[in-house]
Design a protein that fits this description.
15 helices; 0% strand; single chain
């Protein structure tokens, strides 16, 4: 039986560094949207958005909801590797709640805090935080690998400088991720670091090294394979959103562009908003889309992802009510014992 679930809630007071990061994300998003929208025909953009077909949007929302279950299974593989016994259904609940927090908190850390706090009831708190990081790392590595594999098949009019930049980022990220998961190189580097660096961030590097060592390569490799499946689902909801707008973009083109678009999430912003809109016109030009159509697509995907994240709200409320009920029962039992 799992221990009583902790009430998932974002931190009440964020450190100054996290507040500054939140402000940076808001500023980057606002600046990106301003620079993009001022160069577009706003009426044409609105006309494109008015053509939305709700049936295709519903299909996209269903894919996003299903992807949360897939990602929960990926985290389950990592947690199982470190000896956790948290039930899979609970992990799905946490991913739903985490998605809700990440979608509506500028810091984007609420969901990870919830997941790490819950896992810490079952394994060491440092290892719990490490599993969240490793879960995200496998997702990024799959993204980097897909982008590298598909870049050689980019359209002829794809911007060469952008292609080289993306290729370099993906190659460095993929090699770095593989080095981390392999473990021995990371352990050797961490052991040689000065003590001041090893204790930075509450000893995060030591905790990460411990997590990777306890997890092992097989669960990490399995999580990586699941990440590829998730990224294909992500391509699917971009494609269904394109169909909702009546855009005739081949699915193969989305396979190339979506992993690259997803790299925008690495830039400090609110869910990539403002950043994806900045690169979308160039990326989708090869598919014959006008800038207004490309930006409409990214805005609609952003909105769809936020709407789908609302699924976590009732789960969060139910968890809070359940936690209060459990707490009340404990108080009654203690009072009965005392009497």
């Amino acid at each position: 039986m799992d221990p009583a679930p902790a009430t998932p809630a974002p931190p009440a007071r964020q450190p100054a560094r996290q507040r500054l990061m939140a402000l940076l994300k808001i500023a980057v998003t606002a600046l990106g949207l301003y620079l993009v929208l001022r160069g577009l025909d706003f009426r044409a953009l609105l006309d494109t958005l008015r053509t939305v077909r709700l049936g295709w949007m519903a299909a996209g929302a269903a894919l996003i909801a299903l992807s949360l279950i897939v990602r929960a299974y990926r985290w389950h593989l990592v947690l199982h590797g470190v000896g956790s016994s948290i039930r899979f259904g609970r992990l799905v609940e946490l991913y739903l709640v985490g998605s809700f927090f990440n979608a509506f908190l500028p810091s984007g850390l609420g969901g990870d805090v919830v997941r790490a706090a819950e896992a810490a009831q079952n394994v060491d708190s440092g290892v719990a935080a490490g599993t969240v990081f490793l879960d995200r790392l496998t997702g990024l590595m799959a993204l980097f690998g897909m982008a590298l594999a598909l870049l050689p098949f980019r359209p002829d009019d794809f911007p060469p400088q952008l292609a080289w930049t993306i290729g370099l980022i993906c190659a460095v990220g993929l090699v770095g991720g593989l080095a981390l998961i392999e473990g021995r190189l990371l352990r050797g580097v961490v052991n040689r670091l000065p003590a001041a660096l090893r204790v930075a961030g509450g000893g995060f590097l030591d905790r990460l090294t411990t997590t990777i060592h306890r997890c092992g390569r097989r669960p990490a490799a399995a999580a990586l394979l699941v990440s590829i499946g998730f990224n294909l689902m992500q391509v699917g909801w971009w494609a269904t959103t394109g169909r909702a707008l009546g855009l005739s973009v081949p699915f193969g083109y989305y396979l190339l562009v979506v992993p690259i678009m997803s790299l925008a999430l690495l830039v400090p912003s609110i869910g990539g908003l403002g950043v994806r809109e900045s690169v979308a016109p160039a990326l989708f030009a090869g598919a014959g889309l006008a800038p207004e159509q490309a930006v409409a697509l990214t805005l609609l995907v952003f909105g769809l992802e936020r709407v789908a994240s609302l699924l976590g709200a009732p789960v969060y409320l139910a968890t809070v009510l359940d936690f209060k009920e459990i707490t009340q029962r404990r108080k009654v039992r203690k009072a009965n014992k005392a009497s």
